């Protein structure tokens, strides 16, 4: 016979929990139903975010440029040291051979001096430290041993220096990779934002930039501004010849540039070597803090960390390579996006 048991009633605590959860679900559903759908960023909001990402990318680009320049310098220094070590080792071998020749001559004439025997079988540093043995050597042998000792110390120092520079080079290469990845990440994020715009919005942004460029060019050419010095004028003319060339991070010309790549290339055409990065270029001449004292061809620096540089074009305008997606162009100093810090007359 089947047993009929009364179903077990849920505990009061369990009922409370279930009731609370159900109530919360109702509230959340109500809020979700009443919440307005997230709005797509406007064209101007996207532009502001993209401009910020481009600024950050340019900051990283200048750090990348600095690491790349350091890497190239270290590679040259290491190569020079290694060449010197190879040359020095050959010189050391020649010195040892010369001393061996002296020992052979001694042997043929009646035996090898015990002190020379000691050298040929041991480190000359240990040998020369034993002053008592020096009395048994000829002047020629003493000089030969001293030269060997000096050459050994020189080679040891060079090898140690090369070892330290190789460690520095490895660290620099790691930093270079990080900065390159950072630049690419910023540019990728900016491109994703631009891709979110409609074709019409993209066209509007392009037209706005084109109008700004044309206006800056008219302003720059509308007033006769006293030219800079011979080299500054030549550098400015070189930069003018590259108007319309695309911005590419890390590029130094002649077909594409980043900001400091353009200024260093332009001055190179005038026979002046500038450092690679914008920050380093601030030390290339006399600083000028008043815009009224700037002359055409002066370097002009922007942002607190000095990560952007251009060439003064007169009438409050500059020629520069602005950022990814743009070309070398004239632009008002008031629209760079960061404060003017100072100029430098090279």
Overview of this protein structure:
- The termini are far apart.
- It contains 10 helices and 6 strands; from the N terminus they run ααααααααααββββββ.
- It is elongated, with a radius of gyration of 36 Å.
- The protein is an alpha+beta fold and 346 residues long.
- Residues 1-7 and 10-37 have low confidence and may be disordered.
- 62% of the residues lie in helices and 8% in strands.
- Helix 2 (43-108) packs antiparallel against helix 6 (139-195) and helix 8 crosses helix 9 (259-269).
Question: What's the quick description here?
Answer:
This protein has ten helices and six strands, in the order H-H-H-H-H-H-H-H-H-H-E-E-E-E-E-E.
Descriptive labels:
disordered N terminus; alpha+beta; 6-stranded antiparallel β-sheet; 6 strands
What's the layout of helices and strands?
Blueprint (H helix, E strand, L loop, with lengths): L11 H23 L8 H66 L5 H8 L2 H6 L1 H4 L4 H57 L3 H24 L7 H11 L18 H11 L8 H4 L4 E3 L10 E4 L5 E7 L2 E4 L8 E4 L7 E6 L1
Antiparallel strand pairs: 1-6, 2-3, 2-6, 3-4, 4-5
Helix pairs in contact: 2-6, 8-9
